[in-house]
Design brief:
The chain is an alpha+beta fold. The strands form 5 sheets. Strands 7, 11, 12, 13, 14, 15 and 16 form a 7-stranded mixed beta sheet that branches. The chain starts with a helix and ends in a 9-residue tail after the last helix. Belongs to the SYG1 (TC 2.A.94) family.
Amino acid sequence: MKFAEHLSAHITPEWRKQYINYEEMKGLLYTANEAAPAIESVEPDVRMRHFANFDESFYNYSDNELKKINTFFAEKLAEATRKYATLSNQLRTQLEMHQKSKGGKGASHKPVQLPHRKAQELKLAFSEFYLSLILLQNYQNLNHTGFRKIMKKHDKILASDTGASYLKDVVEMSCFFSNKDIGKLINETETTVTVQLEGGDRQRAMKRLRVPPLGEQQSPWITFKVGLFVGCFVVLLVTIILSAIFHYRDVGDNLRIAFRLYRGPMLLILFIFLIGINIYGWRSSGVNHVLIFELDPRNHLSEQHLMEMAAILAVVWSLSLLCFLYSASLSIPPFVNPLVLTVLMIVFLINPFRIFRYEARFWLLKTIGRMTAAPFFHVGFADFWLADQLNSLVTALLDFQFLVCFYATNGNWSEAGNTDQCMDRNYIIRPIVNCLPAWFRFAQCLRRYRDSREAFPHLANAGKYATTFCVVIFGTLRNMNKDKYDDSFDNVFLWLWLLSSVVSACYAYTWDIKMDWGLFDKNAGENRCLREEIVYSMPSFYYVAIVEDLVLRFSWAVGFVLNENGLMSGDLITSITAPLEVFRRFVWNFFRLENEHLNNCGKFRAVRDISIAPLDSNDQAIIVKMMDEEDGVTNRTSLKFYHFLLPGQLVFPFLTQNMAHLLQCTGVQLLLNPANLLKCSLRHGHRLRGRAPGDAKTLAERLQAENVIDPEISKPVNIGFPFVKPSRAAQLGERLAHLKEQRKNPELERLSRERKLEIDLEQVREDWLKTSGPFHIRRAAEHYGVFEHLFGAAYFVPRVELRIRYETSVGSDDSEATTIEHPVRYGNLLKPAETLSAPIVEFDGRFQFNGSASQEANKKDTEPHWWTLVLTNPDGHLENSEHEYCHWFIGNIPNGDVSKGETLMPYLQPFPTKGTGYHRHIFVLYKQHEGQIDYSQYRCNGQPYSLTERTFRTLDFYRAHQDRLTPAGLAFFQCDWDASVTAFFHERLGRPQPVYEYDFPRPYIRDQEWFPQRKPFNLYLDKYRDPAQIRKEYLARKLARVHPFEGPEKPLRFPNAHPISPDVPSWLRTEMRKDRLGWGRINDIK
């Protein structure tokens, strides 16, 4: 299996975005390899430069991935550490409480046995926590393997060894790989469960903590059984159809009644099979249905188990129906068969023995119990999801009601008899059964509103199910009064039923698409009309589902038209629409679970959070009373305390014993959420600070909250010449003309074949400057923060190329002097000694902007064009970091001739101070619009070296002249200290040179320990000695080895071959080995 497939199969779905982006990095490598020049056509240095440029971007991408992984791993590890401390504290508290309740005195060697219920709750909490640790460890291993694979692929494709060095020096030194705390937590959890909860039985403890294999493969035996039973069902179904055709005269009306009796079980079997397909789709797409339904990850049904169950039940259903058709030949009453089938299915469900998927059946019965008693229990996702499924199985419920009524009223099980009292004439029980699924969801919505106090969406959702009541009531009244009207459309209840049905269908469809599926999100981006993030691979699935849901939501209208025109009976229409409704719910399940999964992924919750320490109501009253005291919370508002119930009611006297600590830990948040009390715990005598990981903001969220930026205020403004995109037709015509011209030149083809064709790089540069060059320059300036520090939130695209170069002479004799040019690019490095004199500046002084594009001016234009050139240093001001030094200011430059401009501030060489790093020196060229400008206020008054007069601020300068100036050109270089700066300070400025050095803080040394473990004796004591004394000692040892006439001692040829006495302490033995091998600080004495 390829690693990409292995990674996709073993990742934790909720953390999908936090893993290494292996596919993207692999794509970058293949793209770089394809874009590289061929080996045969270029020199090796060209390919090396290409790969070197690629490596810079690739390793930047790798650094970002590594930063993402380190941050997420650190957050989850901190969360796991706090969770373990909380669970250990709760376990210790329960053990102490139980020991006190037993009247135990003194220490006992026997392990304390907790009550069964409390022990089970603690075991469940530790098992879920252990699963989260294994997932985090798997996250650690997968990411390291991903980096190892991609760096190996990098070295193989690019024929280098930098990937291996990056893996060793960067990846394996990062915290997510080097941190071993996760292994310690796993060992401590195993030890705690083994000793404290399983009485020292490690085998039983590890069986409880067993983690299901990640990416577990399905059993081929189950797959075989599914195929076998499905094949049997298909054969039996064909037999049933043929038998029904040939025996229709014999069974007559009995077959029509039997069809109603068998229809409900068949819908349930179809529903189970489709749920199996749902699970397969969820698992294949990474939707963690196990977590969403809060199933036991160690023991739950897979899609194959459900399909197998559905196939077996389908075979039993087929055999029962065949027995009905051939009941005369078998000499049994025909209507015994559907009753036996229904009883078998019910017995299978409620069977109390631990066989036939006992855990799954018990979970289903428990969920059904909570669903039917919805107003009195907390509503979870599984509860209202099951109630939603029941709304699509209304026909099955009505068929079950018909079955009960049929066998209760019909004493003859050989003939059907009259069943009107169970169908058309039943105006009480049947409507109530029809409303039951809608009532369950209605009650659940009311309960969720009571728990959350959120009117939307819970009350709005309750209104949706309330429309079902209107549909059933008006439908029943319509049937009761249909005999009173000759024309059915004269029945007023028909129109009320139609109106309520349309309202209900529209309401339900809108809720499906917008709320349950989360589609039509305004931030959908490229997923038009869907949502920003989708799980399933093809967007067309979503569009088909939207149309399918609309069609099937209004399928009742088609049935109504067919029934009113006498084309089909109502029973046949129901038999068609009922499976379609089950299919609609099957499609609905895919997108409902996907939406829930995406909401859960935002919280990165991958396992169940089991809380075993609920708050007692008496303790709540004590806390409220303490908060009203003088030393309590004084700014408390009148809020109502709601008692709440969590799974596993344990007595919690530890709360009152540590009340002061808990009040400090929770603060005012205690009023808003009493459950916060459970998240505070002690570790080694210290209180765990901060909110629980589930409630606390991440580091990225806190930084984002600290640096809130108003997008309207911070939106960058273009203060330069605007860019008008040239006509696409003109560009295409120019390219075609160029191609035709090139094809007509046979000389080019000959030179190309002979590999002698040379490209004019100057022409390439000109084309670059006319097309994408200005935008590249802008990006470089943004990278170096030029616009941010000069113009604030403004920027401009340089339309005029600034050609600037410094010239220096090398050689003492003028005749032999060599002139070296140092061009100014966009961030290149120059030394102060290379920039002592003013540079040569050239640019297109006849440039003008004509409103359609940046072009050269008409050559016949005789009007002068005026320019301003300013050179500033935003990093070097000695007194105010918000200001700059102006090194050169030339205004009113006519037609690009800098020598004829008005020099307001003469050129001043760069003087970056020592210890301050690189300084940016920025040339900005401005276009003057209204002739010459009076710059007299900026002129140096005879003091060219006065730094006070050269204090400048580009933003203020531009604001003062923004109506008459437009920035048009940009160039800049970086400069750091050299020896010429010292001479400049002393000779030109007449002041001492400032030198900046970093004042390193003294390292923190913790107090000495009585018995330091696993620390070298001499190195540990050296930390508490005077460094000067240690240096003196090493110097003395060095001098003792120095002989005034003989050379240094020869090193041992085989240092490790010489034995060291076993009586020598370990720390001294290590020092002797270092001395022989020349390792570490021992080199100071050589």
